[in-house]
Amino acid sequence: xxxxxxxxxxxxxxxxxxxxxxxxxxxxxxxxxxxxxxxxxxxxxxxxxxxxxxxxxxxxxxxxxxxxxxxxxxxxxxxxxxxxxxxxxxxxxxxxxxxxxxxxxxxxxxxxxxxxxxxxxxxxxxxxxxxxxxxxxxxxxxxxxxxxxxxxxxxxxxxxxxxxxxxxxxxxxxxxxxxxxxxxxxxxxxxxxxxxxxxxxxxxxxxxxxxxxxxxxxxxxxxxxxxxxxxxxxxxxxxxxxxxxxxxxxxxxxxxxxxxxxxxxxxxxxxxxxxxxxxxxxxxxxxxxxxxxxxxxxxxxxxxx
Length: 305
Ligand SMILES: Nc1ncnc2c1ncn2[C@@H]1O[C@H](COP(=O)(O)OP(=O)(O)OP(=O)(O)O)[C@@H](O)[C@H]1O
Ligand SMILES: [Mg+2]
Prior knowledge:
There is one protein chain. By secondary structure, the protein is α/β, with parallel strands linked by helices. The protein is built from twelve helices and ten strands. Helices cover 44% and strands 18% of the residues. The strands form two sheets. A six-stranded mixed sheet has the order 6-7-8-3-9-10, with helices on both faces. Strands 2-1-4-5 form a four-stranded antiparallel sheet, covered by helices on one side. The model is unreliable at 18-25 (pLDDT under 50). Adenosine-5'-triphosphate (ATP) binds next to helix 2.
């Protein structure tokens, strides 16, 4: 084969490579909701979830935002089978959730809730992380290995023998995450998992999850009222009255400042700062959205001049 032909083939391969690498990601959602509806039996006639459909791909970080009562927590409970949908289908890694496979599917989904104090069952950090594995009969040695490994990942190995009650809020949530990670889930659902933490604890937990997402290609569905956290997500789902009313990249959602107010949401700090700078005649280019990116831009383009 001529050199020219070789180069041509290499060129074609290079063009096709992203499709091979991303193929799995692009075709097969790790989580799929199809026309889900749910009404709590106590409040007949009022949808908590109304025709909710979306797709999430492996390795994505999705932030679910929306006013109080918009159905965020209910949707999370439907995904891991704590509640059963009235109609519609939920697919996890291609499998339709049903009464037969619910336990198997639940193992693919880890959930961490808001209150760090309500999530402990073990007397020590070690026991606590082991608890989920004891339930599914993981052999003792394997269990110990996984406990150490999970605590290592959330940087809490030094606290193995400590009592959970003695930890800070951020440390407690990291232990809760370790308990979930030890079961090797594909999807991690955080339901306001950082909302009771101080800024340091919040940042510790988010950094931990971010590292896990990157290392293990973990998919994260984070229900949050923290719009600064949401600004760092790959995509946002906006919920209102049980429906998905908008989805897209943070920069696409947060530029619609007027609609955010209409949806009952605040503006993230970076958007407020951006607006304020514009009001003072400093044109910030579109796309500089997260606080970090905005600060970097200000630093390199304005303050150093
Ligand atoms: N256990 C329950 N019984 C009856 N109704 C419920 C129950 N839990 C939630 N609801 C109702 O379902 C709707 C959705 O509630 P959900 O808790 O999913 O909202 P949310 O978006 O998580 O809100 P928040 O931001 O306050 O956590 C609301 O109208 C709520 O009042
Ligand atoms: Mg909720």
